[in-house]
Amino acid sequence: MIARFVVRTPLPMRLSFEFFPPKTEEQKAQLRQAVSELRALAPEYVSVTFGAGGSTLDYTVDTVRELREVHGLDAAPHLSCMGGTRAEIARLLNTYREMGCRRIVALRGDLPSGMAAFGEFRFAADLVSFIRAEHGSHFHLEVAGYPEFHPQADSAESDLAHFVDKVRAGADGAITQYFYNADGYFRFVDEVRRRGVTIPIVPGIMPISNYSQLKRFSDVCGAEIPRWIERRLRSFGDDVDGIREFGADVVAALVQRLRAGGVDAIHFYTLNRAKATRAILARIEAQ
Prior knowledge:
Layout: E1 14-19, H1 25-38, E2 45-48, H2 57-69, E3 75-80, H3 86-99, E4 103-107, H4 124-135, E5 140-145, H5 156-169, E6 173-176, H6 182-194, E7 201-202, E8 204-205, H7 211-221, H8 227-235, H9 240-260, E9 265-269, H10 275-286
Parallel strand pairs: 1-2, 1-9, 2-3, 3-4, 4-5, 5-6, 6-7, 8-9
Helix pairs in contact: 4-5, 9-10
């Protein structure tokens, strides 16, 4: 089993990894271990999620700085509309620019717990426009795409229209919400291409290693777990190793299907762990 986790580089696709900012010393150690393992795969960049509302934002800044200065990675901070005024976001952008960042993941984000109203930016397109107005073309801007549609979208058509608005506002690329149905991704790409969108749309991939956690995430973000996958995961019960092996097989097959359809870049949601991502990539390399 250990041999299946040996991954050589270069892999036949461009990779990027998402991390979240750790708060405790234990979480910091976990992230550093994941980074040490995934860095060997030569990612194009890594991203760091946004701590909205001010209380956790410093963790994002500190994590971006460490990934860049200590680990030598091109770290791209997430920036959200939620929990920040124009002045606060402007200061953040200046901080990241001074750090040497050239890539930002610009998102609408979720309303932080306890907040009753949005910030000064209502939609991600507004944030993208603001960044372009403040910094021109300095930052490469990634935005979010939703192959299975945003859970708060009024309709499929309005969701596609919002995505097009973000691109017209100045987005350079997009990363999708995770999914397990390749047809949904390809249909989404076809739909926005017909609307004039030409930017790269990179699939976001969530490894499967914990059923209850995946179910909880999916219920919140609207990502569908196909019935056959969910039933198989439930059938493993407390067999953690069985879930991980099955999950790695399923996601590796998904990535191979995407590659066969012309996808040449993948963004992994790592949850600050390397094992599941490495297992997927080892399977892909062995095929």
